[in-house]
Design a protein that fits this description.
With about 200 residues, chain A is mostly helical. Chain A is built from twelve helices and no strands. Classes of the chains: A mainly alpha (about 200), B alpha+beta (about 240).
Chain lengths: ~200, ~240
Amino acid sequence: MDQQLRKKMSTNSLPFNNYKNNLDLSIYDIINFMKNSLNQDFIKSLVVIAAGISKNSDPYELVNGVFEYLKKNWERYEEHPNLKAIAVLKMKGLFIDEIRKNKNLEDNLVNDDGSDIEIVDNNQVDIVERLEIKSNFSKTIITIRSMGEKCREILMLAAEEMSMQEMQVATGVNSLGTVLSRLSNCRKELKERLSNAR
Amino acid sequence: MLDEIKIMQFADGTLDPSERDNVQKEIENNPKYKKILDDYIYTAEILSNISKEIKSKPLPEYLNNKIDKFNRNRVQSISNSKLSFNFFNIFNIKYSAIAATFCFVFMAGYFANQVIIDMNSKHQVSIKFNDTYKDFRNNSGTNNKILNFYESFNERKFNEEINLIVNKLKKDQKFEILISEDRKASFQFIDSFKDKNNNECKVLKSDKKIKLTSDGNENSFSLTICQNKSYWSLTSINIL
């Protein structure tokens, strides 16, 4: 481990220049050198993005799911250059799994005559209540969650101030141009919806 | 005809610098573009605000516990595999020189009759006591006081513990924390500030006088902790 850490420090030339003559470091200093960390700030960033992705489900559940995944596979992702994008992709996967699971469940729930049984979704989350969002921000989050999947996602990625390159990885689109154009269109749509909601 | 995406990038400050002047001129000369720019600035603001609002809320207890446990295990595993490092010599950690120096300036105006122990500097450190400066560590390297002081204070333990609770602390809140493997002390979170690197720092004042130094004296003191890449660590000990 020592060698790995020293190697990592030597490759991070900027911070390492400050340290290289003195390796009397505390544990937290060493952790600080590591690019990725599953700390509160990182997890809260994921909650912001999950608030857009999760549609009607609980964003904390999605974040919990991705936390468990990253924890289990930490050796693989510890040094990943774009951990947040990986986490977003995983959250989307978890969300899709949840939809599929519910869809299968719904497919089986039919009346004797073959008609669908009306399902009351008891798990539908009041996002404003769940995230304890103040009333002056509630309109924004409700409006965003009423938008299409792609817009919900890219707007919350932008809210999280991810770079265009990070957004490209997280959204899985082919070009930066597509990211820019999607973000531009979604922001226009958001502005329009918020104006109409007044 | 100006591409709206360029206006968005201009609003976000992500436009290529070589294009900025031209785009700015076109926007200034066309009210339609100005309106588009205003709309992009508006959406950038509301997205930023909603992110801040969500992040301002505490995580559910079960998630917090998982994060704590994960990081404790991580620290433990690194600790076990990192025997050759000297964890305990905080005075030789160079990285906090800037923060500690900043703290010195900041705290000098904050408390009277105090000493800032610069954990990094090899230079002389003076104590201001009853308006008289006394050398705390002289240039000949006699630093027994500092070493003895530190023997009673386990920085590693303190850093571990403070990282677990710091995000839950509210201003003026009193709390207890381990300052060594088996010794707790009571502190109050009295102030926060940003250092010159824009890292968030907090000042924690001891609630009662504590015997830390080998001379047997009890002192009130404050600790300054600063956040670096999400981890909080001790940057200065200030005897009051």
